[in-house]
Design a protein that fits this description.
Blueprint lengths: L1 H23 L6 H11 L4 E5 H4 L8 E2 L7 E5 L8 H12 L6 H20 L10 H11 L11 H13 L15 H15 L11 E7 L11 E6 L4 H5 E2 L2 E2 L1 H23 L4 H19 L1 H16 L1 H10 L7 H17 L6 H22 L17 H5 L4 H4 L1 H33 L7 H27 L2 H32 L2
Helix pairs in contact: 1-19, 2-8, 4-8, 5-6, 10-11, 10-15, 11-20, 12-15, 12-18, 12-20, 13-14, 18-19, 18-20, 19-20
């Protein structure tokens, strides 16, 4: 019982280690990337209208954006969605009994952001009278993110709030101290947005382009959709060794190369006419095959060693039966260990080879995880409305996803992954069980029985861990584990066949 407790503790420690190391995998999102994502979750309160097209259809209360310019109008639409920076902050402020800023403040923020965006787009001395609705859309689309950027993230936002606060000293500016937010509100706002975007890590891209779908429902009228792609900067291999000013060894050694392959494969497939979601799926298939093939040199030795040990089971059982009290008698235990070691040495078997596989697989698993989670391409497009960057549990627990088919796709993926993992991990035990029946007459040793039970328990725990993580990690990892499990099944069957044929030739 004590050994089982130790085994369970060890397995939980491994799980904790996996989760810890995964969190230590650096995010490739630059400050600029984060600013773009932040802007998708808070583009302001102003709905802009093209007066030249809308004409008399302009909503009541619409006002011109620029004095003397009748081409562009706006109305105020304060977000209430909790996924919005403003909506979340207002909700939290209401719970805490804090004062929320007035609409006048939010309008001033939008004016400030638009002015700076137009300066970047049209030049510092742009003519407000010539600005069209198209200019507003393009300027905000390309430069609205500057609301949060600067030398460091949030620098411009901090400066903006200070500048707006300074406006209160002149009544002509139309804003007072009562309109502006308190420091507590600004803290809620900033922390809320940081929380919203903390889970977004899909910033590993080999080219600067728009990726992903960010934002929230009930977007502004001038936006093309509720959720929008944002610009992600290209990352180089040099960047991977020094992510955000920190030396990152595994990111440079494995994460970036794997991510680079994902991005290259997806791009190549899409350029070849393959649909985006299918291109992603094929890319993960190839990545899995490449990674597992490179690890074959290690895993094949372990699998072959296990197969050899199965072939040697009659001899192992004979040795174990010579020492029936090895479980409690130290002398018998040492003698049995010596004979077992001699048998292993004679047959060139390393009983620790399976441990070596785990030692090698662990960092590889973390790096594949980091690469798939960080891949910008996987955050775009979908297959059966399922985005491979989304975790299976997130998709399943969102009621809306059952209507568009993505939850069904996520459920099928999870069941396939789980079934493949069960077969992959239990197949060696099933094969061993069949062979054990042939030597059942030799009897069982208590130590042997305990060892077998321990290995079974360890396998079940590891299997449960993988299935659990497959449920909570990005769907791309579910695909990776599914394909990897199929690879393992085929590998086990082939090696078992080869080993059996060799044993037959030797007359064993």
């Amino acid at each position: 019982m004590k050994k089982r407790t130790k085994l369970l503790t060890g397995a939980l420690t491994v799980l904790a280690g996996v989760l810890l190391l995964s969190s230590c995998t650096a995010s490739f999102c630059s400050e600029t990337d984060k600013a773009h994502i932040l802007y998708a979750f808070d583009y302001g309160v102003s709905d802009y209208y093209d007066a030249e097209q809308e004409g008399a259809q302009l909503p009541d209360g619409a006002k011109p954006v620029f004095e003397g310019n009748t081409k562009v109008y706006y109305t105020v639409n304060v977000p209430t969605n909790n996924a919005s920076g403003i909506g979340r902050a207002n909700a939290e402020a209401a719970k805490a009994g804090l004062q929320t800023p007035s609409n006048t403040y939010f309008i001033k923020v939008d004016q400030y952001v638009l002015d700076n965006a137009l300066k970047s787009y049209k030049g510092a001395s742009y003519d407000t009278s010539t600005i069209t609705f198209g200019d507003v859309v393009v300027a905000l689309d390309q430069f609205g993110y500057q609301k949060f950027s600067g030398e460091k993230l949030w620098d411009n936002w901090t400066k903006m709030n200070q500048d707006i606060k300074n406006m209160t000293s002149d009544p002509a500016n139309g804003i007072t101290l009562d309109d502006i937010p308190t420091n507590d509100y600004l803290t809620l706002y900033k922390n809320g947005l940081n929380t919203i975007i903390s889970s977004y890590r899909s910033c590993l891209s080999i080219s600067t382009a728009e990726f992903g779908y960010y934002g929230y429902a009930n977007g502004a009228k001038y936006r093309t959709s509720d959720k929008v792609p944002v610009q992600i900067e290209a990352k180089t291999w040099a960047n991977a060794w020094n992510v955000n000013g920190k030396f990152t060894f595994f990111e440079g050694l494995l994460v970036y190369p794997i991510g680079w392959l994902v991005e290259t494969f997806v791009s190549s497939f899409k350029n070849g006419g393959v649909a985006g979601g299918l291109a992603q799926l094929l890319a993960i298939f190839l990545i899995t095959f490449i990674v597992r093939s490179l690890m074959l040199a290690v895993t094949i030795k372990s699998t072959a060693a296990n197969a050899k040990m199965q072939q040697l089971q009659p001899e192992i059982t004979k040795i174990q039966n010579k020492y029936p009290n090895s479980n409690t008698n130290n002398y018998e235990k040492q003698q049995m260990a010596a004979e077992m070691q001699k048998l292993y040495k004679k047959n060139k078997i390393n009983p620790l080879s399976s441990l070596l596989v785990m030692v090698v697989q662990f960092p590889v698993f973390i790096c594949v995880w980091g690469a798939l989670q960080g891949s910008a391409s996987l955050s775009s497009d979908s297959l059966f409305n399922l985005h491979l960057s989304d975790s299976i549990n997130t998709v399943l627990f969102n009621q809306a996803n059952w209507g568009n088919g993505s939850a069904v796709a996520a459920l099928i993926l999870f069941l396939l992954m789980a079934a493949a993992q069960v077969v992959s991990m239990l197949l060696p035990q099933w094969i061993q069980k069949v062979k054990r029946k042939k030597v059942a007459s030799l009897g069982k040793n208590p130590a042997q029985t305990q060892q077998q039970n321990t290995m079974k328990m360890f396998t079940y725990i590891m299997m449960a861990m993988i299935i659990f993580m497959g449920f909570t990690l990005p769907s791309a990892m579910g695909v990776y584990w599914f394909v990897g499990a199929l690879f393992s099944i085929v590998q086990t069957l082939i090696i078992e066949k080869i080993t059996a044929n060799r044993a037959k030739k030797k007359g064993r």
